[in-house]
Give the backbone structure.
Amino acid sequence: MNCEHPPILSWDICCHVIDNWGDLGVCWRLASNLAARGQRVRLWADQPELLDWMAPGARAGAFVGIEVRHWPRTDPTALPPALPPGDVLIEAFGCEIAPAWVAALQPESAPGKPRRVWLNLEYLSAEPYVERCHQLASPVMSGPLAGRGKWFFYPGFTPATGGLLREPGLMAQRAAFEREPWLRGQGLPDSTDGGGAPRVTLFCYEPARLPELLRDPALDGAHWLVAPGRPAAALERVWDASVALRAQRHALPHVAQTEFDRLLWASELNLVRGEDSLVRALWAGQAFVWHIYPQHDDAHHLKLEAFLDWLDAPPSLRAFHRVWNGLIDAPLPPVDLPAWRTCALAARDRLLRQDDLASQLLSFVMKKR
Ligand code: TRH
């Protein structure tokens, strides 16, 4: 397929917000990435109101090619509105779309017509199973949809996976970014303030070692740019007079995803979490530390180690991640911004040589139609 000029397909993306913001964050990025390639997207979300800050105007139709709709996921009596069926249905993170909705959004393809494609977009991981399971078929064996089938599509970090979301022109925007005016425009300290002290973006859960990090000599004088919600609450609990002598904190409001990206571009250290902000920290090319989403069976331990292997993280960054994420109980290793940034830039170079997720998705769908 010529990916420069792909045919215009209509896509339905269903998103269940389980907790936090990453489910919708990823789905919105995917919708935007597809729309940027001329595709038409209906984004069905059970909490679309989160978009009011993540993508202001989205619910009112301000983004060409994207229509946001409420998905009454938990109401068994709700049926989808009468709409033209789509060409591609994406079930984000196995969100389980009721059979009546699948049948309505995506009726069986008529003989001789291009086939409709139903996909499950999975969570991001660097673990080896991702390459094995990417693009596997999953037939429906029973129930009203028996005989239909969907495909697994796995994002990932290597060429044998579905890749990462990266909108066209992102790196050009990143290169053209003017940090100082942007910081001033946000009411944040620019580089003239604090004699070169680093800016640290804090977007985490509740890392037990945060008090130690606040006292790391490499962050003396730092400006902590603190995201709302759990990061702000976590910092509030441990911020005291001794920390206030050596650092400053700046409470941030919710900002649009595009501004969130710029925040990561403008900071010398990005403490990110979940899934989407990790990917955006990679594109930012600054030193970063990942607070992985904790799973109760500790499945995130292997997931973190697999990511650190792929990242080719230097020993200091590996050790830091293990302590930051509670895998081992040891003092927090010192921050090494230059080494961590070098590692982040090398990882970004590797990723930029691979196709992005939306392009791969388009190619895959065209092959299956
Ligand atoms: O919020 P997260 O922790 O999200 C998730 C969820 O917990 C989800 O259930 C889990 O499956 C997933 O992680 C792995 O972190 P994440 O993924 O980084 O998503 C945050 C999103 O919020 C991201 O798209 C950026 C966006 N964001 C803004 O747009 N503006 C803001 O001001 C902030 C703080 C975040």
